[in-house]
Amino acid sequence: MKQIHKLGVLVALSLASASALAEGTLDTVKKKGFVQCGVGDGLPGFSNPDAKGTWTGLDVDVCRAVAAAVLGDANKVKYVSLTAKERFTALQSGEVDMLSRNTTWTLTRDASLGLTFAGVNYYDGQGFMVSKALGVKSAKELDGAAVCIQSGTTTELNLADYFRANGGMKYSAVVFDTSDQTVKGFEAGRCDVLTSDQSQLYSLKIKLSKPENAVVLPEVISKEPLGPVVRQGDEPWFKVVRWSMNALLNAEEAGVTSANVDEMLKSPNPDVRRLLGLEDPKGGVLGLDDKWAYNIIKQVGNYGEIFERNVGAGSPLKIDRGINALWNKGGLMYAPPIR
Q1: Which among 65, 113, 3, 75 has a CA at the least distance from the CA of 241?
Q2: Is there a contact between 188 and 213 (Cβ–Cβ < 8 Å)?
Q3: Using an 8 Å Cβ cutoff, are 217 and 129 in contact?
Q4: Which of these, 286, 309, 295, lies nearest to 248 by C-alpha position?
């Protein structure tokens, strides 16, 4: 009887998920009153819960921006912690409405999983972290090393490619399911080096009992454009997620912040007035309220604000903006105009 009941529950959940997908995520989110967002399994600066269970981070703020745009309240988000192996299945099945979990945009993922990347919220690259005691100064000195790595990530193939391309260096992979397991394995001496996206290395380094004993090597061996993901074929929802991110970037470029956004409502600048819903195009083109971008900026901030407090100078990570600066300040961050 218990098995029959369990099967009935699974069938009901499957039917409910199918109904939600058929209806369209934007309408579903409006009806249920929250965004179900798939995030990481504990990565400081990107998606990490505090002692009270409150989630913070750069990826978390993308979820909050979407909630502010759609529902007028950045706090109307329910977070689902997902490992790298779980994330795509959770989105495909409808368990989450969107994925915002330090996920690299690649051809295979974009073309074969039934998913679509909505943009890039952080440009990254894979690197290596080693113990200072090893005396290693370059990744090219790692021949024969044991390497801690997380399964289900792009880092596995990148690692193999790098070692093969540099004289056929040898290594042994020590594979873990979660980022926490990789850093514990590294600290316990199960491997000589830990490899991941550089942003993740800085996040994992502060989890070490003695962070000062580890060093991130200078080499960056791959391109890792990270960004939110939605289901393919759901255009209205895809556009909402994409333009929520574009609003964050356009706000920074226009100098509109969470602190001055109310004052900027008086601005004669047409770009600012369009951003804040005072002139066409207004929110209706996205199926949203005219204050959709105002709500994002007021409640979450612009891209510069969320970068600084989560991973930049105002955070424990102290990561330089680098290529994540705006295009007009030497970086790659560039958003299409709101007009």
Answers
A1: 65
A2: no
A3: yes
A4: 295
C-alpha of 261 from chain center: 25
Residue 210 has what DSSP assignment?
S
Two tokens, residue 248: 């964050």
Write down the residue that tokens 């699974």 correspond to.
10
First to last CA, the chain: 59
3-class secondary-structure state, position 49: strand
Q: What is the pLDDT along the chain (339 residues), one digit of tens a residue?
A: 434 433 343 343 344 444 445 679 999 999 999 999 999 988 999 999 998 999 999 999 999 999 999 999 999 999 999 999 999 999 999 999 999 999 999 999 999 999 999 999 999 999 999 999 999 999 999 999 999 999 888 899 999 999 999 999 999 999 999 888 999 999 999 999 999 999 999 999 998 999 999 999 999 999 999 999 999 999 999 999 999 999 999 999 999 999 999 999 999 999 999 999 999 999 999 999 999 999 999 999 999 999 999 999 999 999 999 999 999 999 999 999 999
Non-local CB neighbours of 73 within 8 Å, separated by 6+ positions? 67, 295, 299
Tokens 């990107």 belong to residue: 46
Name the amino acid, one letter, at 21. L
Q: How far is CA 323 from the centre of its chain?
A: 16
CB 198 within 8 A of CB 220: yes
Q: Which residues pair with 230 in a beta bridge?
A: 116
Sign of the C-alpha dihedral, residues 46, 329, 197, 96?
positive
Q: Token digits for 238?
A: 């895809």
pTM attached to this predicted model:
0.89
Q: What tokens appear for 215 in the block?
A: 């060093």
